[in-house]
Amino acid sequence: MISMPHQGSLAALAGWLTLSLVCLSLPAQAVADPGVDAVTADAEASADSVADPNSIQSVYDCSALTALSPPESPGDWFERSVWASHCYQYQARAVRIVDEEVVTLSVARDIQQGVERDRLHFLDGPSRSLLREGGAFRFELGDSQGAAPASPQALVEHLSRFYRLRFDGEERIANRHAIRLELLPLDAMRYGYRIWLDRETAIPLKRTLIDERGQVLDTFQLVAMTPPERYDGKVELRRPPSSARLDWRAGWLPRGFVAQPLMAMASDSDGPRRHKLYSDGLSTISLFVEPVAGSRVLRPGVHRLGASHAAVRRVQREGQLLQVVAVGELPPSVLVKVAETLELAEGQPQGVSDGARPEAASNVHQEASS
């Protein structure tokens, strides 16, 4: 059952999600902290500064693209799209469509001295912008702070365990010839995707989110873009700043979801809003735990915002009432179970049996029984 938030809570929830969900739809899969409008997602050094060699996790040598064989299989195309998301510069206009709401944006992507920089500006409603420097969200399979981003090949291998990748035709998008891929879930724990890749460069031009009934929930599409320019050099992916150690974690996650590094950030008017991010390489779950207070209080239950859902519950801990929120573009039942199985530091899991260690990459997560 979908419950309605308290008055004002829907706006608060929208403030958490709007920018991050739009950015998740970007070809480069950016992740911004919900509630922060104009910040860098990784808070990394500016492009004109010299990177600390110890902060560099991995490097994409974009000049090597010319020597790669043309992609053939769906996995080859997806792997090439990961390269393209790091190695091309362009400017574009884009739209995001959820239900009957259409949001238009300008997108500018450039690379300076090996550092990626993305600028987004919302062209509808209040003027809002996002600047991200230092690279897109990188899926990590490791469970240590020093874990490097998964290579494009490793990412495809991981996804193939939970999605079936297949060709789904060709189409013209943004006046460019595109290959259409489908990524269909192999279980009921996640939604499917269609991705349109530019035939010439493999840059993602369009992305749709598909529910279990085959209905399109969310569309992000470039509608016009300048001719892409390949960066002829090395792009450095820097290590994200470590988050403060939190004394809680998810007690259960769908198979394939792994904890990802994410810096704790806050807006000028809020205190730190720390949360954890989990991903299977495509879908993400954000898990928030904070005291029940102020304008961000939500009624327990499931709330819908566009293509996303938020499962909300409350727990008592040492005399303090906490609000637990699990957010993602996933079936509501999955988010409910994530919220219900929160583990606290005392070792007293909330509604989950002992032995669940979902944040370790080697852990085999159990699927929901319902």
TrEMBL record:
Supply the Gene3D superfamilies for this chain. Lipoprotein localisation LolA/LolB/LppX, MucB/RseB, C-terminal domain
Cross-referenced Pfam families:
MucB_RseB, MucB_RseB_C
Q: Which residues cross the membrane?
A: none
Q: Which residues form the signal peptide?
A: 1-30
Q: Which residues form the MucB/RseB C-terminal domain?
A: 245-342
The highest taxon in the source lineage is: Bacteria
Q: Which UniProt keywords apply?
A: Periplasm, Signal
Residue ranges of the MucB/RseB N-terminal domain?
74-226
> Which PANTHER family does the UniProt entry name for this protein?
PTHR38782, SIGMA-E FACTOR REGULATORY PROTEIN RSEB (PTHR38782:SF1)
The name this protein goes by in its record: Negative regulator for alginate biosynthesis MucB
Q: Which InterPro entries match?
A: MucB/RseB_C (IPR033436), MucB/RseB_C_sf (IPR038484), MucB/RseB_N (IPR033434), MucB_RseB (IPR005588)
The ranges of region (Disordered) come to 347-370
Family designation: Belongs to the RseB family.
